[in-house]
Amino acid sequence: MTKIKTILVSQPKPTLVNSPYFELQKKRKLKINFVPFIHVKGATLKEIRLQKIDLSKFSSIILTSRYAVDHYFRVCDRMRFKVPDSMKYFCQSEAVAFYLQKYVVYRKRKIYVGERSFKELCPIISKHKNENFLLPTTDKLKPEVPELLNNLDIKWKKCVFYKTVISDLTELTNVTYDVLVFFSPSGIESLFQNFPKFEQNGTKIAVFGSITKKAVEEKGLNVDIYAPSPKFPSMTMALDNYIFKSNKK
């Protein structure tokens, strides 16, 4: 194994000072850089109106990410729609629910929280069959989400409130890293759109999730580090294990 000294994470730099990435960097004496390979752009009001969404018809909102939270309230504000106090919020994780406090008084709202995955949120949603659910989402919605919702026998509708856009990565043209870390197929798409002739050579590739792994392999690349797994539920844990083995020689 080649020793790992540099890592590029295809996401924005963490805002928390105690991020596991910073701890990993210090522990293994690495250089870790963060460059978002994709970014989010809000859909225009015209694009939303073309989807024929009447915000007043929905009694519950399904929120899968912080982006969904931001863009739902952005659209409501732009459309001059006052979100009723009776609105119910179904959040995929505690992190999303906590972020919701940016817009609402948490203790005064009906907020339901899943464990982590969307599948884990579904049993909670299924207990509220009389609600009319809105799913503010990206144009890159995972196929499993509508499949799971359709199986719940509930009234729901999705609306694209924001889009995933490829970032300009020209600043990385002459830069190399020992490890590239990806979290979505869109990140892989960005890599090849920016660098059509990219070859893996000795670069190690770390991926999070089976869908991302499949996207990497379809491009003829090898996956060297994978998460989540029973042993390594987080990306930083998987990286730490791999780096420990490769750098101990």
How does this structure look, described?
By secondary structure, this protein is of the alpha/beta class. The chain has a 6-stranded mixed sheet. It folds into 2 domains: 6-37 and 168-247, Rossmann fold (3-Layer(aba) Sandwich), CATH 3.40.50.10090; 41-164, 3-Layer(aba) Sandwich (Rossmann fold). Helices cover 32% and strands 22% of the residues. The N and C termini lie close together (8 Å). The chain is elongated and about 60 Å long. It has 9 helices and 11 strands. The chain has helices spanning 20-28, 45-49, 66-78, 94-99, 118-125, 144-150, 185-194, 210-218, 235-247; strands spanning 6-9, 31-34, 38-42, 60-63, 88-91, 110-113, 132-138, 155-166, 179-182, 204-208, 225-227. Strand 10, helix 8 (210-218) and strand 11 (225-227) form a beta-alpha-beta unit.
Task: Write the topology of this structure.
Elements (H helix, E strand, L loop, with lengths): L5 E4 L10 H9 L2 E4 L3 E5 L2 H5 L10 E4 L2 H13 L9 E4 L2 H6 L10 E4 L4 H8 L6 E7 L5 H7 L4 E12 L12 E4 L2 H10 L9 E5 L1 H9 L6 E3 L7 H13 L2
Parallel strand pairs: 1-2, 1-9, 4-5, 4-7, 5-6, 7-8, 9-10, 10-11
Antiparallel strand pairs: 3-8
Helix pairs in contact: 1-9, 7-8
